[in-house]
Amino acid sequence: MEPRPADIEGLIALMARLPGLGPRSARRAVLHLLRKRVQVMEPLARALQQVAETACECQVCGNIGTHDICNICADPRRATGEICVVEDLSDLWAMERAGGFKGRYHVLGGTLSALDAVGPEDLRIPQLVARIADEGVREVILALNVTVEGQTTAHYIAEALAPTGVGVSALAQGVPMGGELDYLDDGTISAAFAARRRL
Amino acid sequence: MEPRPADIEGLIALMARLPGLGPRSARRAVLHLLRKRVQVMEPLARALQQVAETACECQVCGNIGTHDICNICADPRRATGEICVVEDLSDLWAMERAGGFKGRYHVLGGTLSALDAVGPEDLRIPQLVARIADEGVREVILALNVTVEGQTTAHYIAEALAPTGVGVSALAQGVPMGGELDYLDDGTISAAFAARRRL
Q1: Shortest Cα distance, chain B CAs vs residue A39, angstroms
Q2: Which residues of B touch A72 (CB under 8 A)?
Q3: pLDDT tens digit string along A129-171?
Q4: Could you give the ipTM of this predicted complex?
Q5: What ranges do the domains of chain A cover?
Q6: CATH number belonging to domain B80-170
Q7: Residue B196 CB contacts under 8 Å (≥ 6 apart), including other chains
Q8: Which residue of B has its CA nearest to A49?
Q9: Which of A22, A104, B87, B156 reaches 20 to 30 Å from A174, CA-CA?
Q10: pLDDT interval class at B2 (50, 70, 90)
């Protein structure tokens, strides 16, 4: 007594696996697609097919794009002397949204983890070390998450880069914009206090 | 200085047009797709392509499926003597989720609207009238939304079916399951009062 054919049922199940969509909202989304076949479903199917076929990792930095060398690495306006190291594609996108950084990136693809057996080779750290000399890099900015794993990885990278003599910096830690002390965790307040600046 | 290639940007824009997804959650969904290319993006692309190619309206009832005659109309176990009239595909799915109805459907595709120039011909009402005799229908259940448009349409259909002599009923109106009077609108309480039943 299934009201929906298997194809449509399968599409709902796949949509429900996207973050932010549960079974109910996946059903609503598929209803919308079925109602707007020409205006929405067909363009979306084409776009998804296109990206699924062409998406690949940039061979230089690990960013995901549609060419062997990503938009950013291929852009002659991006400074070659600075590399911002991020854990993941989402962090690269977040840095670009914030703007301000005009250099290039290096996407690690995760953090070091003894538990999950993730070592430096799994994280493109050797490739990062190689880029320092190859591209004449002057500064590496570690934009890793402020988590135990992120900070362990930052330490490891800083040590791995020490022999190259490149400058290594990290994002400042402190009170976020709009942050109210009363709502902040103790760790953030302690870090902001320790890193206080003279005005 | 666009960090994302046009294809990926376009995919995010299309995803953001789905109900329940805004620009931010569309970005998150596409990130997820890019991270899980083989496990999620490729199956989803194939499923969407498949449904986009095969989805069509059932020639009998207007349900959307992947064949000329939908699953329900093609199912010999569904009673032919009863037709449940719904406004939209989503209402058909909701009726099927609720279970209990073992007949067939007729999807109007909207409601009558003088303002939007939607007349009976636009709503598959002539096809409904034709089905009464063709299929030997005994009862038509109007499961239209309890809105001004839905109820106007219900009235119109009841009159259009009067000459056929078929029995016409409508979903009961009253207090919903778990409904607390204090939170219900006046219209619902009035309707439930007017339709009160002797215990």
Answers
A1: 10
A2: 3
A3: 999 989 999 999 999 998 889 999 999 999 999 999 999 999 8
A4: 0.81
A5: 80-170
A6: 3.40.1360.10
A7: none
A8: B45
A9: A104
A10: low
**Residue A85: which H helix or E strand, with range?**
strand A82-86
Q: Which of B4, B67, B89 is nearest residue A31 as measured by Cβ atoms?
A: B89
> Is B1 a residue whose pLDDT tops 70?
no
Are the C-beta atoms of residues A83 and A93 closer than 8 Å to each other?
no
Chain A contacts of B41, Cβ < 8 Å?
48, 51-52, 55
Helix (H, G, I), strand (E, B) or coil at A131: helix
Of B5, B44, B89, the CB nearest to A71: B5
What element of type H or E holds A74? helix A71-74
Q: Cα–Cα distances in Å, from A36 out to A131, A132, B17, B25, B64?
A: 48, 50, 11, 21, 12
Can you tell me the distance from the alpha carbon of A145 to that of A153, in angstroms, rounded to the nearest whole number? Answer: 10
Contacts of B138 (CB under 8 A, 6+ apart): B81, B82, B166, B167
pLDDT above 80 (res A1): no
Nearest of B62, B168, B55 to residue B108 by alpha carbon? B62
